[in-house]
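hiii, so i know i said id send this last week but things got crazy w the move. better late than never?? heres the sequnce for the chain we talked about at the cafe, plus the structure i predicted for it. fair warning i was half asleep when i ran it
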Amino acid sequence: MLPLKARCLAMVAEVLNVGENYALDAATLCTFLGLQKRQLTKAIAAERRAGAFICASTDSTRPGYYLAESVDEFRRYLRSLEKRERELRLTREALLDAARRKGVDVGEA
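okay and structure toks below
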């Protein structure tokens, strides 16, 4: 039998609801699984990398995690990730430009 932490890490996708309208917030998942927020985040990342279709709600009024109900819902989530990726890249580039203008050597950033 796996220790409790290992069992919890393997269970995140199993306890999620299907569909963004039924997303479970992090606090609820942490309580249910007995995890800290950081552990939950790591578990979700690991399960996604292992192939679980875990999505995060992009609706700020109903934040949480869920399993995609349809291909369209999954595509919507992927597009939201792409937008976040672009925004992060633009922010990083702006910060690097500002550092160069100030003569700050950031090395291999």
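btw The chain has a mean pLDDT of 89. thought thatd interest u
miss u guys!!
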